[in-house]
Amino acid sequence: MNTNILKQKIQMKAIILEKAGSVENLVMQEIAQPTIKANQVLVEVKAISVNPVDYKLRSSEDVIRILYGSKRPIILGWDIAGVVAAIGDEVSQFAIGDRVFGMINFPGAGDAYAEYVAASENHLAKMSTNVSFEEAAATTLAALTALQVLQGKVKKNDRVLIQAGSGGVGHYAIQIAKSMGAYVITTSSAKNRDFVMSLGADEHIDYRTQKFDEVLSNIDFVLDSMGYDVLLDTVKVMKDGGQIVSLAIFDVAADLKEAADKKDVTVLPFMVQSNGVDMNTLKALLESGAVKAHISKTFAFSEMGAAHLELESGRTVGKIVVNI
Length: 324
Hints:
This protein has helices spanning 52-59, 61-68, 133-138, 141-150, 168-179, 193-198, 212-215, 228-236, 254-262, 276-288, 304-312, and strands at 11-17, 26-32, 40-50, 79-87, 99-103, 116-120, 125-126, 159-162, 183-188, 203-206, 219-224, 238-246, 266-269, 295-300, 319-323. It is an alpha/beta fold and 324 residues long. Strands 3, 4, 5, 6, 7, 14 and 15 form a seven-stranded mixed sheet that branches. It has a six-stranded parallel sheet with strand order 10-9-8-11-12-13, with helices on both faces.
């Protein structure tokens, strides 16, 4: 093992979850720093991004079992920004002291709610000098989801509908789609209209007073985060041969497939994957200013429960970040 690797079991603070439940079940403890493998780096975490999947896991044993099986306790989280503290023998992309960010080890245990995490070097990218740890941490799972959904599917002048444009994924998707040259339409409440338009959206629909399926047509691509209840209506607005990618379904129901097939529309479920190449694409977008993270609130590490409650409120615009 490389002499750079920390060999002794140094203690660190981490937030662990013994069983599903309320935010009181998130408990800070002293545990041993993780041991890294040959292809991993040890990251001293400076900022963590919190996502809806975090509180869904925290509150449901069934959801925990999907990702963690019978393992208990668990450490939640995947989104980090920090400094490389140690490297494995096979690591070639990073050196000690590098500032890095990424959505790490997904699917699987990211273990991000900790002062130090072990991550595959292939899940990380170096941070640009003009980006803070908070901004970098925020531009991970949500931004990676938007990028992976849109890249290779959206082209210049496509009419693109982004549902829930003021949310974590949505606010990145608007910016990334615009960087691809698309004409972007998005939905949000009226109070968030100015925000989504400032991101580059060309049209706004107030979902509380307007039905998108009554005002839109000839849509080439849709990023859906609403799920089955709106997908049948979404098919109605599509151009023949268009594509819908949904973050809110696991499979395509028979009636949805039938409606889509009549218009030669493709409907696909989607789950994000950790990917260092894509993280480097996000790095370039951040560096150029084509993408900016909107952080609605920040919390201290000891306030992780409050961060969960804020996210669960459903009122978050952009992202929530926890500093260590």
